[in-house]
Amino acid sequence: MNKTLIILPALVLAATLAACGDGADDEGADGGTLTVLAASSLTDVFTVLAERFEAAHDGVEVELSFGSSTDLAEQAADGAPGDVLATADQTAMAIAEDAGAVEDPATFATNLLVIVTPPDNPAGITGLEDLDGATWVRCADAVPCGRVALAVLEAAGVDAEPASLEEDVRSTLDKVVSGEADAGLVYASDAIAAGADVATLPIAGAEEQLTSYFIADLEQSEDDDLAEAWVELVTGPEGQAVLTEAGFSLP
């Protein structure tokens, strides 16, 4: 009788602990990997947000893939693995939307084009009109930062030819930081991210050519809940605060 009284509570306690353990695993460990395809200009912001997201979702690893918005949208449209797509303009997002890879993308930020030079500005660049004759770079025509650059240059009546066309805005920035170019046209947020490595010059009228950022969870996502949680983080108060601090404007 005594043995039975001792064994039964022990069995009940073990079963209770096992049940609690199972519940804790289900609640706390979402597990797996969340893959986010994002415009290169979002590198710093999304890296910060990824750390916060992982801290809030036990067992989840955020894998960030940065590059040209157009290239990433084309990959998403072709069904490449991924959970979320964030682009630096609507034209790029439309590629994925037209292919049925995303639905109802949301606008979450805007950005402004600026001129960056090496800190000592050896070519004496003061504005777009000084690009003629200088070694300067911008993004390729087919990517968002290139489309914005073309619009800004056209509005200013400047037809100076760049020394090279880069695949994305970070590649453009790197050419200036490394001293390979006298100037580059990049987003304000990228200039802020470069810090003392560049000098930044505003472009008159650039505010008329703002680029808007779009985000959406991908149809091929293997975890809709996590994908939606990432979109909510970026578009919510916490994400918007990080974006603003990094030099982005709110939509």
What does this 3D model show about the protein?
With 251 residues, this protein is α/β, with parallel strands linked by helices. It folds into two domains: 31-109 and 213-245, D-Maltodextrin-Binding Protein, domain 2, CATH 3.40.190; 113-209, 3-Layer(aba) Sandwich (D-Maltodextrin-Binding Protein, domain 2), CATH 3.40.190.10. 43% of the residues lie in helices and 20% in strands. It contains nine helices and ten strands. It has helices at 2-28, 43-56, 69-77, 90-98, 144-156, 169-177, 188-194, 224-235, 237-245; strands at residues 33-39, 61-67, 84-87, 106-111, 113-117, 136-139, 164-166, 183-187, 199-201, 211-217. The strands form two sheets. The protein has a five-stranded mixed beta sheet with strand order 2-1-3-10-4, with helices on both faces. A five-stranded mixed beta sheet has the order 7-6-8-5-9, sandwiched between helices. Helix 2 links the parallel strand 1 and strand 2 (61-67). Helix 3 runs parallel beside helix 4 (90-98) and helix 8 (224-235) packs across helix 9. The longest helix is centred in the first third of the chain and has 27 residues, at 2-28. It is globular. The model is unreliable at 1-29 (pLDDT under 50).
